[in-house]
Amino acid sequence: MNEQKWPDTLWLVRHGQSAGNVARDAAEAALLKEIEIAERDMDVPLSDLGRRQACALGAWLGALPADQQPQVVLCSPYLRAVQSAELIGATAKLDIALILDERLREKEFGITDRLTRAGIQARFPELAEQRAHVGKFYFRPPGGESWCDVILRLRSLVDTLTREYRQERVLIVAHQVIVNCFRYLLERLDEREILDIDRRGDVPNCSVTRYRFDPTAGHHGKLVLEVANFVAPMQETGTPITREPDAPVAAKP
After folding, report:
1. Phi and psi (nearest 5°) for 208?
2. Which domain holds residue 175?
3. Based on the structure, what is the number of domains in the chain?
C-alpha cells in the first residue's frame, strides 16, 4: 500500500473584508479612476467587518472536535491575510504558530494597481484591448502577474504540502486568486473550467473551500473537494457576507 503523501484536510480561506475592498467599492460607485488608499497593497488592513468575519470563522473552527481542527496554519504575508489568520487562530484557541509564505501572496497587478475599471480603460486602453484578446488567464500586466504565474509558484507550494504536511490538517489563509488557482491545481481543471468558476462569482471573504484526502480517488489517493465558498460560519452569527474582488480588473469575459 502506498504511503499517503497529502494532508488529511486542507482548508482554503480568503481573508476577511479589507479596507481596500471598501475603498475600491467607493471608487467604482463614484466612477473614479483611482482607488483612494494610501498603503501599499501588502499593507492594507482588515475593515471592522473583516475582523468580525474572521472571528466568526474562528469560532466555527474552535467548535470543531479537537481531532478535526487545523494543525498547521499557512498564510500570505499581506497584512489583511495575517490579521485574518491571527483572529481566526485566537478565536478558535489554536495553539499553533502562524507560518508566512510569500508564495501565497496576492496576485501582483503591476501598473494597473489601485486603478478602477474606468482608470484602466482611460490610462491603458491598449492593455484592456490586449487582455480582452489574450484572456485573463494568460494576460500579464507590465510589472504584474498572470494567473499562470500564480499557478507556477503554487505548484512549488503543493510540493511543500506533500513533503512537510502529509497526513496533517492544514489551514491556508490567502486571497481570492490563490483560492481559485489552488482549485485549478487540486481539481486538475483547465482554463475554461476555472474561468467558469471565477465568472460565476467572487470568492466570499472568510469563506472556506475544503478538501479531504480520499485514498480511493485516483491511482494513489488525492485531495477531493468537499465544499467550496462555505459561508455558514458567518450566516450562523449574522455576520454580513461580502464578495468584493481584491483589485480592479477589466470586465470579465
Report:
1. -120, 130
2. 9-19+43-107+145-237
3. 1
